[in-house]
Each structure stands twice: as C-alpha cells, then as structure tokens.
C-alpha cells in the first residue's frame, strides 16, 4: 500500500502490475478511484461561471454530455485537469485527489452571486470499469444497457438496487466507464461487479495504481504533477485542443501571448533502449548536453517498450530525433516517438 | 516462499548453486516477490571477470531498480538470454528458468562463506 493524497492505495493487487495492465487491455479491470473528487456547481449564473473557469467549450454541452477540460491559472499554467459533466440542473466536475482543495478554493474565489459550489467528494464513491469487455459487464449488471450511452456521455443506471451515475469515460485508453454512487455502497458494488464478472465468464480483476499509471501513460493521457502542472501550459503539453479560443476563460490571454512568442519547450514521448527510464532522469543531446528531464517513465506492457515523457526545446521534439536518457549515470540510446504509444479505443475507427 | 536447498546466498538475496563445475547465479524467490514484476535485466557479457561482492548487473521491477552482486568470484561463462528477452521468468521461476548468469569460480572456497539455505531462511524471517 502507498499513501496517495491522503488515501492508502494498493500499488498492485496480488495479480501483479503487468498482468493487471494486460487484463484491462484484454477484458475488464476494476479501479477503486474514490480518491477522485467531485464538485457540483449550480445556480442561475452557473453556466457562465463554468465557461469562464474551464478551458474547453461548454456552451454546447447539454445533458447527457461530458467533456475533458483544463483548469488554468492567469499565467496559463494547469491547476488541474477535469471532466465536466452537464447534468440537468448542475455541472458535475470530476477533479484529481491531490488538487481537490486547491480547485475548490479556486472556484470559490472566483464565484459571484448566483453560483453555488458544493464539494460532493465524501458522499460520492467512484469506481472505474475499463477494458474491451467492460461495457458488456455493466450491460449485464445494470437495469439498462450502458452500451446505448455514447462515448463521453452519462446515464442513470441501477446496479443491484444502487442508483449509479455512469459516465462513458475513463483513463486507460479502453472503452468502459466511471461509476458515481453513494459512498456507503462502495464494498457492495465492488464485490458485486467482481462476482458478476465471474458468473458471466468475463475476466474481471481489481487494478492497482501502478497499472493505472502504465495504462494511462501508453494511451497518452496526462497525470497532473507530471505531464501537466501549474508550471506547464497546455500549449507545451499538447492540449491546445482542450482550449476553446472562441470564448473567454481564465488563462486565455496568457496562452495567446505564448502562442505569439512560441513555446520554449514541448512534451515528447521518448523510447529508451537498454534500461527503464523513470521520473527525474535527465535527457541529453548526442553530444552529452542536458536538454530536459523525464516527467514520467516506465515499462509499457502492451507495446512492450521502455518509454518516458519529457519536456525538451522544440528543436529536439521532432519524431525520430536521436537522444539519450541518463540511467544511473549512463547515457542510454533513445529516440523521440509519436504519442500516444497506444491508440485509445475512442480514437480507433469503428469503435 | 521457495528456498533452493542446494544454493547458498548473500544477504542481498543473490544465490549461487554449483552445477557441473560452474556456479549458477540468480536471485531468490523471496527477492523476486519483494521486487514485484521484473521488467528489465542487464547482465554482463560472457568472458567478464568479476570479484565477489562487485556489481554484475541490474534488475528493474515496476517499482525500482536494484544492483546485482556477485556471490562468488569468477569468469562469466554463460548469460541467460531468455531472461533478457522475458524478464518475467525471474518472477515465475527465479531458481530455475529465471537464472541470470553462470560463472566459472576462481576461488571455489568462497561458496562455503555464503549463507546456507537455513541461515538464509532465518535472515528473511522464514524459519
């Protein structure tokens, strides 16, 4: 077990991190992600407020839609990344555990009258079910088929008597969903889904933090504090697509300035030969000059590669650029590769 | 945890096992369990001469990287290529298919200075 933002989280279950990763890619993984926070925003001024606070377009979001977004500071740095759900009467914002208090404070600081902000994190439990058979599992476990819910949309379902808000979202690159329901039902739903998987012959296992990290890493999804942080702007990290420049939002003016000047560094994926790159390892040019630092790095079980993400100056960011990563004092051969290493299900044709 | 009775051990969990005039070297079952999923192994080339106690390679798991120490002095005569290609062999069978290198010992008496299976079991708290 490892402490994580005040929660004790298993790095891996007895299955082992690599196998947990592979099970999620071939069948279904169950993720205990109650550490994620949920903030509900409502009131007559809520729509305008949310639009001003988050980077993505929200004016076209109607129930049951949801969208990935960033929360930026005035300098364009990323305070957090979020999922914004449009509920019938409110906005349901899913935030990272370690940023929950910061986000809440940020929202409250900017809220005018006509906006109500409530932290729903303690009363809400969150479990993710991810994998090519995850939808089939929930279809058979719920009172209505979730396969009818489009990607990045949500629906109300009932699982074994428990009302659940099901979002067809996730953090693994696989199809599946994220379940929100009353905290008191956590163990009930967890055990019910594992049992249901077994009785249906759908391989379903609990997945720990290590596999959650390698799954998201392969699929090119950022982890706050690594690929994105208050010291990183979305243009450097490749998240311009999550910013709607046709509206006003906090951080927009800074981003427009940075766009004009050009970014000083870019996030790149690097494949390493002859060692496991890890966070904090330095990246060097062929002549040995240090040009960056890995913000994440690991063995990627699906693509069977050792890879890192790092920020480097734009001239080093082109795919195919030869570099090295310093592993325990030794420069190891490395090359800039296209991200993501593993194409998420929602970006694959016909899914 | 399994303990190979025919092997002797370092407190850092490497084992040496005499087999047909050479020493088979690897890490114990206890060590692989502690490391978690092994994802990378770096080993010396055959012909390399290494003294007892020196680093002969690196083993990396999902969690961490660890140095590997020579339990006896000698010349590397064979390297387990299978384990370089599939490091999970160390997790599945550390005393068998997950062996790391074979060494021609230069001082066979060193073997007797290592922990025997009972002493090693005691050292890892499995009496």
The name CATH uses for the topology of chain B is: OB fold (Dihydrolipoamide Acetyltransferase, E2P)
Find the count of extended strands of chain B (DSSP E, 2+ residues).
9
Portion in beta strands of chain B: 25-35%
Question: Can you identify the CATH superfamily of chain B?
Answer: RNA polymerase II/Efflux pump adaptor protein, barrel-sandwich hybrid domain
Helical content of chain B (DSSP H or I, runs of 4+):
10-25%
Give the helices and strands, then pairings.
The complex is a heterodimer of chains A (351) and B (127).
Chain A: E1 2-4, E2 7-9, H1 17-26, E3 28-32, E4 37-42, H2 46-53, E5 66-72, E6 78-86, E7 91-95, H3 100-110, E8 116-119, E9 124-130, H4 134-141, E10 154-159, E11 162-167, E12 176-182, H5 186-200, E13 204-206, H6 209-218, H7 234-237, H8 252-261, E14 266-272, E15 282-284, E16 290-300, E17 305-312, E18 322-327, E19 330-337
Parallel strand pairs in A: 3-13
Antiparallel strand pairs in A: 1-2, 3-9, 4-7, 4-8, 5-6, 6-7, 9-12, 10-11, 11-12, 14-17, 14-19, 15-16, 15-18, 16-17, 18-19
Helix pairs in contact in A: 1-6, 4-5
Chain B: E1 8-9, E2 14-19, E3 22-27, H1 29-35, E4 38-42, E5 49-50, E6 55-61, E7 65-69, E8 74-79, H2 81-85, H3 89-92, E9 101-105, H4 117-123
Antiparallel strand pairs in B: 1-2, 2-3, 3-9, 4-6, 5-8, 6-7, 8-9
Word description of this protein:
- The complex is a heterodimer of chains A (351) and B (127).
- By secondary structure, chain A is an alpha+beta fold.
- Chain A folds into two domains: 2-215, 2-Layer Sandwich (Gyrase A, domain 2); 264-340, Beta Barrel (Elongation Factor Tu (Ef-tu), domain 3).
- Helices cover 22% and strands 32% of the residues of chain A.
- In chain A, strands 10-11-12-9-3-13 form a six-stranded mixed beta sheet. Chain A has a six-stranded antiparallel β-barrel with strand order 14-17-16-15-18-19.
- In chain A, a hairpin with a 4-residue loop joins β6 (78-86) and β7.
- In chain A, α1 crosses α6 and α4 (134-141) crosses α5.
- The two termini of chain A are 36 Å apart.
- The model of chain A has no long low-confidence stretch (mean pLDDT 96).
- With 127 residues, chain B is of the alpha+beta class.
- Chain B has one domain (12-110): RNA polymerase II/Efflux pump adaptor protein, barrel-sandwich hybrid domain (OB fold (Dihydrolipoamide Acetyltransferase, E2P), Beta Barrel).
- Chain B contains four helices and nine strands.
- Chain B has helices at 29-35, 81-85, 89-92, 117-123; strands spanning 8-9, 14-19, 22-27, 38-42, 49-50, 55-61, 65-69, 74-79, 101-105.
- In chain B, the strands form two sheets. Chain B has a six-stranded antiparallel beta sheet with strand order 1-2-3-9-8-5. A three-stranded antiparallel beta sheet of chain B has the order 4-6-7.
- In chain B, a hairpin with a 4-residue loop joins β1 and β2 (14-19).
- The longest helix of chain B has 7 residues, at 29-35.
- The mean pLDDT of chain B is 96.
- The A-B interface holds A 11-12, 16-19, 210, 214, 274-276, 278, 298-299, 306, 328 and B 36-37, 39-40, 42, 58, 60, 62-63, 65, 88, 91.
């Amino acid at each position: 077990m490892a402490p994580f933002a005040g929660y004790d989280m298993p790095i891996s279950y007895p299955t082992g991190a690599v196998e947990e990763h592979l099970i999620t890619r071939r069948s279904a993984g169950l993720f205990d992600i109650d550490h994620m926070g949920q903030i509900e925003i409502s009131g007559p001024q809520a729509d305008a407020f949310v639009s001003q606070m988050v980077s993505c377009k929200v004016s076209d979001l109607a129930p049951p839609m949801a969208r990935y977004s960033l929360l930026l500071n005035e300098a364009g740095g990323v305070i957090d990344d979020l999922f914004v759900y449009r509920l019938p009467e409110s906005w349901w914002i899913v935030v990272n555990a370690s940023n929950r208090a910061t986000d809440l404070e940020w929202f409250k600081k900017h809220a005018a009258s006509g906006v109500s902000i409530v932290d729903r994190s303690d009363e809400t439990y969150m479990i993710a079910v991810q994998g090519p058979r995850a939808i089939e599992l929930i279809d058979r476990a719920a009172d209505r088929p979730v396969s009818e819910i489009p990607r990045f949309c949500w629906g109300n379902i009932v699982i074994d008597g428990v009302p659940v808000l099901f979002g067809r979202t996730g953090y693994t690159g696989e199809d599946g969903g994220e379940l929100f329901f009353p905290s008191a039902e956590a163990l009930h739903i967890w055990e019910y889904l594992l049992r249901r998987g077994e009785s249906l012959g759908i391989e379903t296992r609990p997945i720990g933090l290590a596999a959650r990290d390698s799954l998201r890493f392969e699929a090119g999804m950022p982890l706050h504090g690594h690929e994105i942080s208050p010291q990183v702007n979305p243009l450097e990290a490749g998240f311009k697509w999550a910013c709607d420049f046709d509206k006003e939002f906090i951080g927009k003016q800074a981003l427009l300035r940075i766009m004009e000047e050009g970014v000083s560094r870019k996030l790149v994926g690097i494949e390493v030969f002859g060692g496991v790159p890890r966070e904090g390892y330095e990246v060097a040019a062929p002549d040995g000059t240090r040009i960056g630092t890995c913000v994440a790095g690991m063995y990627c079980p699906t693509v069977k590669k050792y890879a890192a993400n790092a920020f480097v100056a734009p001239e080093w960011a082109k795919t195919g650029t030869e570099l090295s990563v310093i592993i325990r004092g030794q420069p190891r051969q490395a090359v800039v590769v296209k991200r993501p290493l593993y194409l998420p299900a929602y970006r694959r044709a016909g899914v | 945890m399994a303990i190979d009775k025919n092997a002797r051990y370092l407190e850092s969990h490497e084992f040496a096992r005499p087999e047909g005039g050479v020493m088979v070297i690897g890490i114990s079952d206890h060590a692989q369990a502690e490391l978690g999923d092994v994802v990378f192994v770096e080993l010396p080339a055959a012909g390399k001469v290494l003294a007892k106690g020196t680093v002969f390679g690196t083993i990396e798991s999902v969690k961490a990287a660890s140095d590997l120490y020579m339990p006896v002095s000698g010349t590397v005569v064979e390297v387990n290529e299978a384990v370089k290609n599939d490091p999970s062999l160390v997790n599945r069978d550390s005393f068998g298919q997950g062996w790391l290198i074979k060494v021609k010992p230069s001082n066979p008496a060193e073997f007797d200075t290592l922990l025997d299976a009972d002493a090693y079991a005691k050292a890892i708290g499995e009496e």
